[in-house]
Amino acid sequence: MHWSQSVVSIHWLRAPSAEAAGPIFQKLPSFLAKTNYEEPLDNTAGPFQYGHDTALRSPVWRKERPHIQKAFNNHMAGYHQGRPSWMDPGFFPVKERVEQGMTRNNKDVAIVDVGGGMGHDMVELRNKQPGIPGRFILQDLPQVIEQISQPLKGIEAMAHDFYTEQPVKGGTTVKPFTLPLFKILT
Fold it and tell me: HEC profile for 118-130?
């Protein structure tokens, strides 16, 4: 078996992806050794900050670099295309889990997608599970929400920093990223 380029490897080897992720992964071994392989408890003193020599959290750092923010949004939007999804019928009982505790009132909050980018997962969920009643709320930083170019049918887009208190009460919360990788990259 040998390595060959793919759409993903070509994308990640180009700036701005390499500009964003490269320093983190290059300095990750020394960061881990320096911290005795302990999980960072401060979200302004993790591998991202060490790699980029900054105290900024990654969303703030990306906001100052619109080309990187755009590349990040595009990556997140296409991340699981062509792969089975947790919301595919028969894969996970999404409808049943979301409806638990709901009054089946369309004013109830059904689901809040925290850090949901430009709404790709919420649109897919609405299309694959159209019978789920209630409000679907998409949350991300203002600079991400502002990039949504067309209305998302049946989805409320809300600017929100997920490091602050959640303004929406009730509903099911979804964080569609892998938590360990998220901790490294933020």
Answer: CCHHHHHHHHHCC
Taking the whole predicted model, whether its pTM rises above 0.85 is answered as: no
Which residues, at least 6 apart from 93, have a Cβ–Cβ distance to it below 8 Å?
Answer: none
Alpha helices in 57-161 (DSSP H): 58-63, 66-78, 94-99, 120-128, 142-145
**Distance of alpha carbon 28 from alpha carbon 7, whole angstroms:** 25
C-alpha 17, offset from chain centre: 16
> How far apart are the C-alpha atoms of 137 and 115, rounded to whole Å?
11
Q: CATH top-level class for 94-177? A: alpha beta
15-39 pLDDT per residue, tens: 667 888 889 999 999 999 999 999 8
Phi then psi dihedrals of residue 125, to 5 deg: -65, -45
Q: What is the pLDDT of residues 88-113, one digit of tens each?
A: 878 888 888 777 766 666 678 888 88
